[in-house]
Amino acid sequence: MFASVYIYRVPRQNVDAFLSVQREAAAIYRQHGAADDETYAARDLEPKYGCAGFMQVLATEGDEELLIGLTRFQDQAHRDRVMARVDADPRINQLYNKVTTLLDVGRIVRGEFERVA
After folding, report:
1. pLDDT over 90 (residue 54)
2. Does the predicted model carry a pTM greater than 0.85?
3. How many domains does the chain have?
4. At what angle do helices 90-102 and 15-31 cross, to 10 degrees?
5. Whether the Cβ atoms of residue 40 and residue 70 lie closer than 8 Å to each other
């Protein structure tokens, strides 16, 4: 499996609107072949078990809520094919433009990961 991971810091007053956009985007990703696309809300970010907590390394500002988006693909080649189709879909650009009104996109953290175990 291969995954794209996004960490979002969303002002609380925009969370519902952001999740609405995320649901629309998830449907587009799935329509173009993604294995899955899910968004998770933070529930416990405190340090435990000798580990640092998320808030120690990913600070939020004031009233922001931390959300994580996870899109899964069969492998990197599958990701590349799906993303080429998603990027060509005009609906995704419209949704991205909505996101820019809901949060500071420059503070989104992203990365891609391949399953190794």
Report:
1. no
2. yes
3. 1
4. 160
5. yes
